[in-house]
Amino acid sequence: MKNPRSAGASPETEDIEWEMRPGGMFVQRREVGVVDDGPMIKITVTLGSSHHELYLPAQSTFWDVKKLLAHKTGLQPEEQRLFFKGKEKENEEHLHLAGVKDKSKLLLLEDAVSKERKLEEIRKQNEMLKASEAVAGVRAEVDKLADRVLALEVAVDGGTRVSDKEFIVSTELLMRQLLKLDGIEAEGEAKMQRKAEVRRVQNFVDTLDSLKARNSNPFSGKAASVTTQWETFNNGMGSLNAPTSTSSSSRNVTQDWERVD
Could you say which residues form the signal peptide (predicted)? Predict the structure, then answer.
């Protein structure tokens, strides 16, 4: 709009166009494409024991301040709360209208909800790390027992008779590790690691049970084979009793006597 002509106004100022800025301030309208952000000011923002200095136009908003602080503090703009003279400021408020001037000081606090969420994430990460370390400790013990199971397997396969106590003790040691795994609270990747280790221990226990049975009855495999062969013979011939030579001779003698008579 045009400025109302005042007394004594020169012809050069008659047609100057003015525009209203936030807060009711009238300033001369600039040409399109020309940006007028006003004077630059320096402000200090305090976060805990840290102090951050910012240089920005006086007519910037508090949201602009938050965006600059994001690079310095690591806090996203929506995670920040800005205070000036003890009052929290809204994002759309302008610095100069709120009374912020050169060398003014602001207070920055992290949003409580955001802070709690971050603390919860850190807690979960620490718990996952602790669980992973616990599983790794069990895995190291199971590795040692795996060598023991392998040695027993080689002995049994080689026909060496092993004391049953060896199988009992090895199984008991594995079960102890299984109890340790059961007591580990885990989530995410650590939970998958624990599950895999539980399955591994159970497989070793099953292997020991099988080896113990074979060790107690080393000929069980051959006996089963012989039984199977006799069953096959029985199914094919209808009888397990083979004819003897005595019965054959007896029939021949009987036949000879009948012919003599």
Answer: none
- Weakest-pLDDT range from 74-83, 123-132, 187-196, 235-244: 235-244
The answer for residues whose C-beta is within 8 angstroms of residue 56's C-beta and 6 or more apart is 40, 41, 43, 64, 65, 68, 95
Would the pTM of this model clear 0.70, i.e. be above it?
A: no
Q: In which element (H, E) is residue 161 found?
A: none
Torsion-angle region of residue 104: left (phi > 0), alpha (psi -120 to 50) or beta? beta
Q: Which helix (H) or strand (E) holds 68?
A: helix 62-73
Amino acid code (one letter) for 99:
G
Query: pLDDT (tens digit, 9 = 90+) per residue, 50-61?
Result: 999 999 999 999
In a 3-state reduction of DSSP, which class is residue 53? strand
pLDDT score at 37 = 57
Distance CA 76, CA 46 (A): 16
- Which residue, 258, 244, 259, 170, is CA-closest to 212? 170
Question: In angstroms, rounded to a whole number, what is the distance separating the alpha carbons of residues 83 and 96?
Answer: 14
Q: Token pair of 123, please?
A: 């807690």
